[in-house]
């Protein structure tokens, strides 16, 4: 066989792929290792990847192609010269789909370099793969024809997804297959006999044993007991050739032990041969009963077989409290069952996965001396991990420089190895994986140790996870604890920590030092994490005002400037798909962390996304065609043109659904001039299979699948009707049920109507009222009239959870309402708001809600009630904020645009000095010395600020120092008061043309003005110039000139140019900068602070004044003011 494979590697007329197919223990990996060694020796081996379920990085499909590319780059200079520019131009390539990885990392460099090489992939079945057909093989089939000079040698068990992968037509014709377990038994026995003779010959020559060893009788008995399993033969040879043991005596012991009663005691209907061998080896290694030694044996072997990732002997000793000198000899005594090196710091793992299956199964490992109890062993590992972390974790474990991000530390790997040994790394990453297997009776012992860890070491643990690139483990660990414990004190900690991790997930993942510089100081004062760890905070900025007292309802935010806005939940509610201009991002539904990037195309404005029922494919629909991708590989799997007959162009009113098996799709356009047309398509062929019209009325959302059939709802005056049709049928749909609608539904719009099949609930809106009608009981389960004084109320994006527990929609002013169903009625459960009006979308399981917008997507849970105190500002409600700092940076004044209340804050203490009820809708304000001026509704009103340091004083119009009436201030969109409070600039627009006017604040008279032809974003006035500011830094300026004799004012144009920094409030005159990814940089480019996503905004909503920084977008209930220390 080896010779045949050798010939295949050199014959380019033979297929480029070779699949060595075999059952467990038939020698696949041994052959793969031999082929890799031979090809390495003759210079043809380009790369190899030996999959293993024992190692996280070797069971993850996403590591295969990057690893192969790295090895090819090291081997071939020409490949490396092509690969490096590709990676530099797209550093995020490793996050791309498998299809994108193979194309960019492997295929393109191989095609351009024309390299001839061999690539070995062993044990592909040991990688985690949820696809019906192997994801790696699916991608390989698409590209293998482009690289004919490359040979792929693949081994794997004949698992269903592996078999289906090799049956893919493109790959099937490019593959040679050899099935090891179908080789004639006589040939297998001959090979095993040859294997024994070859290895015994080597032992004889090395150990100086007589030529007649082993005897023919011994050899025959060995071959008979091996039963065709190479794993048995290899374990036997390893046992015989044990270091410091006589091979002849080892073989004789094996013969005698299996002839004694041992075999009978271990014999089962399956695995008989291996069980007998394993028991013999254990007895030979550990001899007579010794309760103390037996407990140690179980602990050490249990750590080998149950560790989440393989541990070294030294790490096992550290975690279990043994000496490394004692653990290594114990493992050496059963070295024939393990992969063990002489280096005690290298991982040890089972030689074959049949051994872990044996030793944890009391029906197979029948001697309790050796049988490992999983709950007991998991508890021992868990306690060992927690106690190790409690002993060793401390702040700044790796001695990182202040304020750096992890990627900037060039020797981070060396620092980690020096300060965080392998045992502690394992403990930090894997302790929680041992929690669930423990029993309820073990909780009493575990809980105090766990609680101490959470109270004393939590942030230090996050720091290590950040350095290891494993912050996601923190989310999993906290969720595991929440499900495991019922201790309220621990639950309170865990839930607060969960909010902390999600709120600062990005910065924790990016920079370990900024856990203490950014995350901890910006946590709410009521946070348990902040209170417990406040002594470790080392902020570079002080929050003067605007820090929320409790956690924000939004758990996670995804930010990107080129979002298209289309989102979709996966059926399992674990993933979210987000459409960008040229890609689709697959996000983790807990953290909104990017998991995968699929190369797409730039769609139209109204793109729609949808997952298939099994969650394996994703569909993008742009109004003309429907494109599908395999989610695991990222490969396109088909395109269906839907343009004919559906009047699709630029419509936002398409409904579509899949058949149960995901092979058919039904679609309708509810905005068509010919309503009620439904078309069905075969997604494999792209052909339309049927089209028909609804018998009556207009179709409303949704279409859904019922068994093998399609169902939909139509509305007519006074009724709505449920219909059913087959996906492939051209017959008239059959009526299933007809319901009366209430009188209020007479004027409902079909485009703002939603039906919930599970509970027969009909949701619809009429003007500012939203209704949910329970068709079964013929009564309203919700009737809500929205009243908004600041925004006209509309409803956007109604959605139900699948079971109807929750109902959600977006309303005016960025508000979102979530209603919870109790006793047949919906009650308001959550009310929050975001910077922009959005269409929320409930997850199928109802546990989460997502609000897509550009440039941000927000995620929060529906579990907790979120209802603001009556009269309290809702996050995001209202208009944008206005903030002005006094020139001496002692005070700041803030209000909402068109609001009527102004607050004055002491910047040193953060105290609220004065609250002014202005009696007007404010458009502008200015603080100068001890005076504040406010403009709006045709007036400029000034107040004298209190001379003392009074706190929370009140003032009204009656307390004002001076009031001036100004014509035009009530008309302009923007206004600006000069720093000396002497002049006011306003804008007036009629259609496309407008004017900038300058007024005298004292008299109210108009001093001068000029025309403008383009509406700016705002107007800025100082003592000598007035500027209309447009996008970016550009603007049109005028110099203010005063006649010395007459006092007349005129404007001299400065033209269109870059605005001076003094009028660009969002630019710091001291040199501070805010980067696109939310970092505030000092004048020397040091990272001072990471801004949370809800504090990020466009330039026009930032205000700088010296070291003070203000944020004023409408997504905040109050202005945010920060003071930087550097």
Instruction: Output the radius of gyration.
Output: 36 Å
The secondary-structure class comes to alpha+beta
Percent in helix: 25-40%
First-last Cα distance: 71 Å
**Mean pLDDT figure:** 86
Main sheet summary: 5 strands, parallel
Q: Using DSSP, what is the number of strands?
A: 59
Task: Please give the order of strands in the largest beta sheet.
Answer: 2-3-4-1-5
Given as residue ranges, the uncertain stretches (5+ residues, pLDDT < 50) are: 259-270, 647-651, 871-878
Counting DSSP H or I runs of 4 or more residues, the number of helices is 28
Approximate strand percentage: 25-35%
Q: What best-fitting shape do the alpha-carbon axes yield?
A: globular
Describe this entry's structure for a reader:
The protein is 28% helix and 29% strand. A hairpin with a 5-residue loop joins strand 14 and strand 15. Helix 16 crosses helix 20.
């Amino acid at each position: 066989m080896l010779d045949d494979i050798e010939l295949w590697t050199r014959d380019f007329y033979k297929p480029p792929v070779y699949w060595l197919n075999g059952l467990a223990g038939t020698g696949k990996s041994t052959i793969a290792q031999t082929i890799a060694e031979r090809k390495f020796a003759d210079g043809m081996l380009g790369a190899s990847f030996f999959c293993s379920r024992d190692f996280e990085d070797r069971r993850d499909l996403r590591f295969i192609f990057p690893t192969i590319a790295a090895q090819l780059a090291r081997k071939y200079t020409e490949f490396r010269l092509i690969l490096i520019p590709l990676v530099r131009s797209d550093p995020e390539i490793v996050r791309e789909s498998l299809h994108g990885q193979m194309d960019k990392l492997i295929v393109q460099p191989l095609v351009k370099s024309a390299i001839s090489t061999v690539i070995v992939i062993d044990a592909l079945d040991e990688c985690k793969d949820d696809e019906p057909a192997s994801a790696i093989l699916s991608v390989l089939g698409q590209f293998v024809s482009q690289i004919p000079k490359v040979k792929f040698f693949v081994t794997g068990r004949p698992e269903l997804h592996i078999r289906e992968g090799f049956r893919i037509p493109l790959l099937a014709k490019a593959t040679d297959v050899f099935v090891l377990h179908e080789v004639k038994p006589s040939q297998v026995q001959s090979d095993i006999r040859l294997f024994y003779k070859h290895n015994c010959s080597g032992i004889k020559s090395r150990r100086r044993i007589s030529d007649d060893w082993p005897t023919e009788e011994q050899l025959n008995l060995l071959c008979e007991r091996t039963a065709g399993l190479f794993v048995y033969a290899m374990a036997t040879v390893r046992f015989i050739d044990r270091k410091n043991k006589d091979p002849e005596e080892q073989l004789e012991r094996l013969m005698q032990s299996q002839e004694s009663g041992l075999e009978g005691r271990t014999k089962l209907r399956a695995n008989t041969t291996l069980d007998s061998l394993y028991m013999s080896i254990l007895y030979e290694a550990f001899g007579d009963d010794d309760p103390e030694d037996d407990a140690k044996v179980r602990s050490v072997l249990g750590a080998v077989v149950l560790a989440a990732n393989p541990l070294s002997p030294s790490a096992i000793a550290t975690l279990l409290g043994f000496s490394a000198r004692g653990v290594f000899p114990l493992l050496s005594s059963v070295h024939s069952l393990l992969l063990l090196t002489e280096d005690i710091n290298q991982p040890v793992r089972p030689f074959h996965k049949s051994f872990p299956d044996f030793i944890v199964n009391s029906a197979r490992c029948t001697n309790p001396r050796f049988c490992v109890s999983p709950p007991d062993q998991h508890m021992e590992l868990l306690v060992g991990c927690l106690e190790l972390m409690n002993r060793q974790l401390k702040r700044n474990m790796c001695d990182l420089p202040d304020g750096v991000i992890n990627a900037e530390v060039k020797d981070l790997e060396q620092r980690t190895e020096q300060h965080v040994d392998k045992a502690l790394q394992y403990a930090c990453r894997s302790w929680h994986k041992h929690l669930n297997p423990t029993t309820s009776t073990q909780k009493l012992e575990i809980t105090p140790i766990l609680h101490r860890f959470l109270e004393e070491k939590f942030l230090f643990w996050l720091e290590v996870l950040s350095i290891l690139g494993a912050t996601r483990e923190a989310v999993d660990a906290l969720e595991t604890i929440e499900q495991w414990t019922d201790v309220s004190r621990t639950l309170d900690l865990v839930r607060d920590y969960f909010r902390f991790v999600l709120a600062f997930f990005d910065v924790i993942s990016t920079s370990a030092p900024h856990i203490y510089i950014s995350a901890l100081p910006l946590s709410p004062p009521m946070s348990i994490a902040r209170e417990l760890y406040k002594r470790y905070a080392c902020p570079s900025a002080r929050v003067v005002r605007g820090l929320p007292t409790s956690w924000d309802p939004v758990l996670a935010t995804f930010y990107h400037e080129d979002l298209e806005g289309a989102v979709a939940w996966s059926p399992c509610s674990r993933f979210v798909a987000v459409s960008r201009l040229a890609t689709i991002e697959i996000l983790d539904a807990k953290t909104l962390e990017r998991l995968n990037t699929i190369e797409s195309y730039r769609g139209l404005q109204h793109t729609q996304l949808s997952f298939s029922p099994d969650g394996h494919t994703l569909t993008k629909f742009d109004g003309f065609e429907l494109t599908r991708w395999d989610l695991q590989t990222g490969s396109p799997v088909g395109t269906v043109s839907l343009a004919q007959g559906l009047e699709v162009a630029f419509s936002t009113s398409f409904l579509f659904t899949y058949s149960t098996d995901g092979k058919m799709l039904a679609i309708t356009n509810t905005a068509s001039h010919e309503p009620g047309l439904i078309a069905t398509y075969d997604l494999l062929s792209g052909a339309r299979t049927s089209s028909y019209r609804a018998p009556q009325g207009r179709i409303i959302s949704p279409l859904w699948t019922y068994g093998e059939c399609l169902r939909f709802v139509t509305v007519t005056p006074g009724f709505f009707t449920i219909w059913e049709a087959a996906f492939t049928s051209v017959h008239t749909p059959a009526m299933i049920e007809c319901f009366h609608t209430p009188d209020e539904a007479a004027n409902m719009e079909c485009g703002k109507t939603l039906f919930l099949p599970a509970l027969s609930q009909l949701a619809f809106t009429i003007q500012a009222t939203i209704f949910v009608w329970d068709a079964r009981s013929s009564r309203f389960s919700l009737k809500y009239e929205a009243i908004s004084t600041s925004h006209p109320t509309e409803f956007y994006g109604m959605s139900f959870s699948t079971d109807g527990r929750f109902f959600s929609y977006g309303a005016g002013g960025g508000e979102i309402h979530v209603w919870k169903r109790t006793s047949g009625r919906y009650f308001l459960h959550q009310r929050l708001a975001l910077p922009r009006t959005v269409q929320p979308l409930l997850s199928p399981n109802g546990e989460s809600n997502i609000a897509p917008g550009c440039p941000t997507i927000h995620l929060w849970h529906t579990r907790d009630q979120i209802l603001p105190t009556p009269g309290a500002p809702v996050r995001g409600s209202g208009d944008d904020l206005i903030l002005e700092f006094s020139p001496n940076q002692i005070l700041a004044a803030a209000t909402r645009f068109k609001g009527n209340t102004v607050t004055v804050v002491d910047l040193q203490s953060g105290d609220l000095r004065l609250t002014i009820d202005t009696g007007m809708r404010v458009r502008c304000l200015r603080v100068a010395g001890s005076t504040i001026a406010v403009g709006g509704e045709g007036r400029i009103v000034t107040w004298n600020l209190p001379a003392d340091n009074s706190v929370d004083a009140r003032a009204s119009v009656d307390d004002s120092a001076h009031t001036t009436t100004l014509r035009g201030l009530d008309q302009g969109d923007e206004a600006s008061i000069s720093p000396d409070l002497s002049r006011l600039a306003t804008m007036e627009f009629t259609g496309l043309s407008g004017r900038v006017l300058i007024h005298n604040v004292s008299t109210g008279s108009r001093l001068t003005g000029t025309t403008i032809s383009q509406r700016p974003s705002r107007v800025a006035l100082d003592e000598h110039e007035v500027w209309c500011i447009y996008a970016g830094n550009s603007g049109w300026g005028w110099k203010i000139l005063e006649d010395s004799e007459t006092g007349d004012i005129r404007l001299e144009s400065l033209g269109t140019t870059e605005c001076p920094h003094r009028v660009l409030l969002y630019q710091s005159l001291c040199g501070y900068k805010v980067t696109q990814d939310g970092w505030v940089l000092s004048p020397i480019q040091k990272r001072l602070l990471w801004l949370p996503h809800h504090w990020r905004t466009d330039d026009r909503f930032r205000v700088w004044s010296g070291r003070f920084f203000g944020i004023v977008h409408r997504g905040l209930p109050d202005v945010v003011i920060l003071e930087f220390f550097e």
